[in-house]
Design a protein that fits this description.
alpha/beta; 21% helix
Length: 247
């Protein structure tokens, strides 16, 4: 398969706006498959789309809010008990990932951390500004502006000769420029149309800065009801659960 196949398994926000699953984007190409974020509903979304969890080699996490990483404990439990995973899994995300993931596992499935996994797990805590090689891909995270306790990152991802950028959840900040500049695909949060709200990006602000970003393609995601009511009127592509694009 030339280039990348990008499947929006989940394109929603934390509140189920539009009946959408929480953020979970499957990228396949270059001999690998990886998830960009894994919200709490992600395993359900994968089952509905007939995606084999064992086809996922890496999970990349933008930040540590439940609608972006809360599905990882469920993914790991399924890997151990249902999907019978044997090959390694890499989970990469912000500083503090190991502690927060362990706490989530303890809260959701007490005793789960004590169970010896039947497959290797490589937990990688990403350093903002530092390019990191992972199985089949490279990622350069940039620290952005969202809830501080979530260690938010925008992710610039290189795989199969293509470059993707995912903003994660963030208000506008200059760090989005190196993350997104001239990317083959920019997947951008557009939570509101033009209403300014702290810690989130609206479409009007994104428009103002596109000349600095110069992405080759833009797909909007993580939209509130305000944005979902406008998707048929917008000049941008908008994500929806089940959307598949080639990059």
């Amino acid at each position: 398969m030339d280039g990348l196949r990008v499947t929006f398994l989940g394109s929603g926000d934390a509140f189920g706006s539009g009946g959408r699953f929480q953020t979970c984007i499957l990228v396949q190409g270059g001999g690998t498959g990886f998830l960009v974020d894994c919200g709490a509903s992600s395993l359900i979304a994968m089952r509905r789309a007939a995606v084999d969890p064992n086809a996922v080699d890496t999970i990349l996490l933008s930040h540590l809010h439940g609608d972006h990483f809360g599905g990882v404990p469920f993914f790991l439990l399924d890997a151990q008990l249902i999907s019978k995973r044997s090959k390694p899994l890499c989970i990469a995300g912000p500083p503090g990932l190991a502690e927060r993931l362990g706490a989530a596992m303890d809260a959701l499935f007490p005793g789960m951390r004590a169970v010896r996994q039947k497959f290797p797990i490589d937990l990688v805590e990403l350093t903002p500004g530092a390019r990191r090689e992972l199985p089949g891909l490279a990622v350069t995270p940039q620290a952005v502006r969202h809830t501080p306790g979530t260690a938010p990152l925008a992710l610039r991802i290189e795989c199969a000769g293509r470059t993707l950028c995912y903003t994660g959840d963030t208000e506008w900040c200059e760090a989005l420029i190196p993350a997104a500049q001239e990317a083959d695909l920019l997947i951008a949060e557009a939570y509101f149309y033009d209403k300014p709200i702290p810690l989130h990006l609206n479409l009007a602000t994104l428009r103002e800065h596109l000349d600095a970003l110069r992405p080759r393609r833009v797909i909007l995601t993580h939209m509130s009801a305000d944005m979902l009511a406008r998707v048929d009127t917008l000049e941008f592509e908008c994500a929806a659960d089940g959307l598949v694009v080639r990059v």
